[in-house]
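User: Before I run my own analysis I want an independent prediction to cross-check against. Here's the chain; please return only the structure tokens and, at the end, one sentence I can use as a sanity check.
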Amino acid sequence: MKTILVLAPKNNEVKDAILNEVVDALLTQSDISITRSSLPAAIGRHLEANPRICCVLYDFALGGLDLCDQIQNYNPDLPIFAFTDSEDYLEVDLKTLKFNLHFLNYRTAQSDVTQELIFSTIDEYLEELVPPFSQAL
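Assistant: Structure tokens:
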């Protein structure tokens, strides 16, 4: 079972509706489960408690790059998808290249391309985690 951690504010109905559509699309794959939180401070607790987390989706306005730093402290290779409704992602510096970070815009997030990008990134991450010999078993 693959678990996706979703961090989103509770006070924005538009963003919440879009994230819900993305999550519903991801749940069409049978081996996906979702863990939700609205508290960026709880990210460490979630990552420690659930080793099956294979991806984090979050609202960039909720934690910015500081949240990416926290995630990287627990797992530097974990795929991170930051949703934004502005051009904030253009203001990041080169240190973000060390993250497995993808920016998604809320206006285009409901597309099949977004779902495919998330699934393929998760698959690549999991393939690197499991040694080839173990996969053959």
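Sanity check: The longest strand covers residues 53-59.
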